């Protein structure tokens, strides 16, 4: 049974445990700061209302019997504290069941949040974090080598993440097949960062090479992750490098960051030692796994293998689902992103006025968001791996879909709700209530090099139309 101990994967285990826990810290802090305004007792999509109507149809959650903003914050801060201990390595210093309980605790706490998070928590990286946290529970502690079966399951997770994303692109928009997707993507992605404009202005032949490289890394390299060393380490390095470029050129919450962490599952201590001799080649434990721990990890392996049937079938399906969970525990999910690329960037601007009448000549002032583009002269900022949930949902508005939350958002602005205004970068009324609010659609594009030199602006925006005519608080009553 010696083969069940992955003695050449200690560095991988340390990166996986601490890296996944670090992302949990960010996720819990993001929740504590944003959840009450978005989904709390007076949120845009209040959890108490969801629980009253959906009842048992809501997935497993600690909030099933009672929700309050105070309880939500307690859950988030408890999860952040446990995750921080895992980042430092405190539970890992004990027997293997201690970090197991710590990871299962943060998984269950965050699962409780995601299952009531509705559209604000409907992103693939939420399920990815949950699956990664559950699987990490069985990596053991410093007293034992990581189990081989769990390390293979992490590689299987990276395979689904990358190959699923590659297949969704090939089955999706024609722009991925004719190599033109990146003519648009850097400009139209949900939340550009300071590098996005420069990436967008690269010559088109380089964009075509980017797409080719993406197809190679997502459709070929994932199979190499299962090859013997050092091939698997080289494949992992290619995944890490491409994810690093995505980190540099965009704001995709923690998706790219956690993918980098997960890719280390295929990295061996010996390969790292060959590359960096200062790092010892024998980092791991040589002792056999304790019998009780062997039983636990094999049971967890069997569970995750059985649950793999549905996402494996999905990978082969012509109607492949993107970012789908096949169970309410968010274990062994289907992943993928940007099956098609939008070619024009439309943004919704929200404006208010304190004038008596909402005429065209009224003093309309625009609310400024933290991450999404607003004023043309403002450089896009870097926020990832932190997730600005309101800004992301604003990107989806012009594309259609559920906009119930947006109507509630406008009402909260009319009320000058403090928790809502804290989600904004700038309130043009300094905490006072506007009499009217409205929403306008603009077409945005990055400035050319010449336009940037002349004006200093990052964006050119063109008014399109009014999408929400002026409304006042009385209209909601």
Short description:
The protein has 477 residues and is of the alpha+beta class.
Tell me the radius of gyration: 24 Å
Task: State the helicity in percent bands.
Answer: 40-55%
Please report the number of helical segments.
21
Whole-number total of structural domains = 2
Say how many strands there are. Answer: 4
SS class:
alpha+beta
N to C succession of SSEs: HHHHHHHHHHHHHHHHEEHHHEHEH
Low-confidence stretches: none
Cα end-to-end separation: 69 Å
Described by the principal axes of the CA atoms, the overall outline is: globular
* Main β-sheet description: 4 strands, antiparallel
Q: Mean pLDDT score, rounded?
A: 94
Approximate strand percentage: 5-15%
Note down, in words, how this protein is organized.
It is a single chain. The chain is built from 21 helices and four strands. The protein is of the alpha+beta class and 477 residues long. It folds into two domains: 2-316, no CATH class; 345-476, no CATH class. The protein has a four-stranded antiparallel sheet with strand order 2-1-3-4. α1 (10-39) runs antiparallel to α3 and α1 (10-39) packs antiparallel against α13 (255-263). The protein is globular, with a radius of gyration of 24 Å. The N and C termini lie far apart (69 Å). The model has no long low-confidence stretch (mean pLDDT 94).
């Amino acid at each position: 049974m010696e083969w069940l101990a992955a003695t050449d994967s200690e560095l991988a285990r340390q990166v996986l445990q601490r890296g996944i826990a670090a992302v949990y810290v960010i996720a819990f802090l993001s929740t504590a700061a944003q959840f009450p305004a978005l989904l709390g007792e007076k949120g845009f999509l209040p959890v108490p209302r969801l629980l009253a109507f959906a009842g048992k149809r809501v997935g497993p959650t600690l909030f099933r019997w009672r929700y309050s903003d105070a309880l939500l914050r307690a859950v988030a801060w408890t999860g952040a504290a446990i995750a921080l201990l895992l980042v430092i390595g405190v539970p890992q210093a004990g027997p293997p069941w201690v970090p197991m309980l710590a990871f299962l605790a943060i998984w269950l706490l965050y699962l409780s949040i995601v299952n009531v998070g509705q559209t604000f928590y409907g992103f693939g990286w939420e399920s990815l974090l949950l699956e990664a946290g559950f699987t990490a529970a069985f990596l053991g502690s410093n007293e034992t080598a990581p189990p081989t079966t769990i390390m293979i399951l992490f590689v299987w997770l990276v395979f689904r993440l990358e190959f699923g994303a590659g297949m969704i692109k090939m089955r999706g928009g024609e722009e991925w097949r004719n190599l033109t997707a990146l003519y648009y993507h850097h400009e139209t992605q949900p939340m550009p960062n300071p590098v996005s404009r420069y990436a967008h202005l690269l010559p088109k032949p380089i964009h075509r090479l980017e797409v080719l490289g993406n197809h190679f890394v997502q459709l070929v390299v994932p199979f190499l992750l299962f090859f013997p060393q050092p091939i698997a380490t080289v494949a992992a390095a290619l995944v890490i490098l491409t994810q690093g470029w995505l980190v540099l050129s965009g704001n995709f919450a923690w998706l790219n960051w956690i993918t980098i962490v997960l890719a280390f599952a295929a990295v061996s201590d010996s390969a790292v030692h060959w590359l960096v001799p200062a790092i010892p080649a024998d980092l791991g434990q040589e002792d056999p796994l304790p019998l009780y721990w062997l039983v636990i990890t094999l049971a967890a392996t069997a569970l995750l293998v059985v649950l793999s049937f549905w996402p494996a079938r999905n990978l082969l399906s012509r109607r492949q689902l993107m970012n789908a969970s096949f169970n309410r525990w968010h274990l062994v999910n289907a992943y993928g992103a940007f099956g098609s690329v939008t070619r024009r960037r439309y943004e919704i601007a929200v404006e208010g006025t304190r004038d008596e009448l909402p005429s065209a000549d009224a003093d309309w002032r625009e609310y400024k968001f933290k991450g999404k583009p607003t004023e043309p002269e403002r450089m896009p900022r870097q926020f990832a791996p932190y997730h600005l949930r309101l800004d992301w949902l604003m990107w989806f508005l012009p594309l259609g879909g559920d906009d119930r939350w947006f109507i509630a958002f406008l009402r909260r602005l009319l009320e000058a709700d403090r928790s809502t205004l804290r989600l904004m970068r700038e309130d043009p009324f300094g905490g006072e209530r506007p009499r009217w609010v409205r929403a306008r659609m603009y077409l945005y594009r990055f400035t050319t090099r010449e336009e940037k030199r002349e004006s200093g602006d990052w964006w050119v925006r063109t008014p399109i139309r009014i999408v929400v005519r002026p409304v006042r608080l009385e209209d909601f009553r």
